[in-house]
Amino acid sequence: MKHTTAYGSYIRYKKLFILLMVVAVALAALLAISAGSAGLSWQEVITTLLGRGSKQASIIVFNHRLPRVLTAMLAGIGLATVGCAMQCLLKNPLASASTLGIAQGAAFGASFAIIVLGAGIQNQTLDGITIINPYIISACAFVSSMLSTLIVLGLSYFRRVTPESMILAGVALSSMFAGATTLMQYFAADVKVAAVVFWTFGDLGRTGWTEIIIMAVIVAVSFVYYALNRWNLNALQGGDETAKGLGVNVTAFRLLGMLIGSLTASTIVSFVGIINFIGLIAPHLMRRVIGNDYRYLLPASGLMGALLMVASDTAARLVVAPVVLPIGAITSFLGAPLFLYLVFKGVGTRR
C-alpha cells in the first residue's frame, strides 16, 4: 500500500511537471509575440489573438510574429520528439537528425538548388540575400535528406538492422554529403556561396501559413505514432531480446520509427534550415527531471524543444535589434555549453 501511494505521488509529479511546461511554453509564446520594435503589451496580444485587436496589431501579430512563433514551436516539438525516439531506437544518446546525415543531406540539396538550379543569389545593392525560389530549395533539401535516410535504412535492412549499422551508415553519408557540398561551393560563384551559407544558418521567417500547416500535420502524425508506441519504446530500453520477449517486432518497429522520425526532421529542416542541438539537448534535459518513462518523456521533450526554440528565436530578434541573428547559431551557443554540462555531470536519469 505504501509503495502504491509513493508511485502515485511520483506519477502526479510527472503530470504536474508537464502541465507546468505547457504553461511555460504559452507564456514564452506570448512574450515572443509581444516583443519587438512595434511593442505590443500582453493585453494587446491576447485581445488581438481573440479577434478584437486593432487593424495594425492584427497585421503585426497574424502576418509577422504569430507565424514565426508557431514555426519555432512546431520545429522544437518535432525535432525534440524525433531526437527522443531516435535515441531509444538506436540505443545511442547522441542520435539525432545530424547523426543520420539528415541535416547534411538537406544542406547538399539546398546547395544543389542554389548553385546548380539558380534558386538563390546575393543581392549586392541591398547587401542582403535574395532567395529567388524558396520552394525549389525546400523541395531539393527534403528529397536529399530523405535520400540519405533511405540509404541508411536500406543498407541496414539488407545487411542487418542494428543500431550500430544505422549510426555508422549515417556518419558515412554525413561525411559524403558534406564533401559534395564543399565541392559545389568550391566551384560556385561567391554570390551563390553566400546564398548557401545564408540558408544553412537557419531562419524561422521563411515559412508562411502553408508551410506551417504542413509542418503541423507531419509533427502531429509523428508524435501520435510515438505516443501510441510508448510502451514499445519502454520495452526497447531493456534491449532487443527483452523487447522481443514482450511481443515487440523489433526490426519492423525500428525501421518504421526511424522512417517516420527522418520524414519529420527532413520536413522541418527543408523549411527552416539547419537547427542544431534541439533534438539532442531537450530529451537529455527532460530525462534528468522526469526519467526514462516514455509515457511522460515524449511530451516533456517536445515541450522543452518548443520552449528552447521560442526562447532562442526571441533572443535572436532582440539581442542586436533590428538585426535578426541566425537561429542556428543561437541554439548552438545555448546547446553546446548545456550539453557539456550534462556530459560532465553525467547523463544521469530518474526512473
The CA-CA distance between the termini, in Å, is 20 Å
Strand order of the largest sheet: 1-2
Considering DSSP H and I runs of 4 or more, what fraction of the residues is helical? over 70%
The pLDDT mean sits at: 83
- Runs with pLDDT <50, length 5+? none
How much beta, percentage-wise?
Answer: under 5%
Shape: globular
* Number of H- or I-type helical stretches: 14
Counted beta strands: 2
What this model shows, in words?
This protein is mainly alpha-helical and 351 residues long. Helix content is 75%, strand content 2%. It is built from 14 helices and 2 strands. The chain has helices spanning 2-34, 42-49, 55-89, 102-116, 134-158, 163-187, 190-200, 209-228, 230-236, 240-245, 250-272, 278-290, 294-318, 327-345; strands at 120-123, 128-131. Strands 1-2 form a two-stranded antiparallel ribbon. α4 (102-116) runs antiparallel to α7. It is globular, with a radius of gyration of 21 Å. The two termini are 20 Å apart.
In brief:
The chain has 351 residues and is mainly α. The protein has helices at residues 2-34, 42-49, 55-89, 102-116, 134-158, 163-187, 190-200, 209-228, 230-236, 240-245, 250-272, 278-290, 294-318, 327-345; strands spanning 120-123, 128-131. Helix 12 packs across helix 13 and helix 12 packs parallel to helix 14.
Q: What features would you highlight for this structure?
A:
351 residues, mainly alpha, two-stranded antiparallel sheet, 75% helix, globular
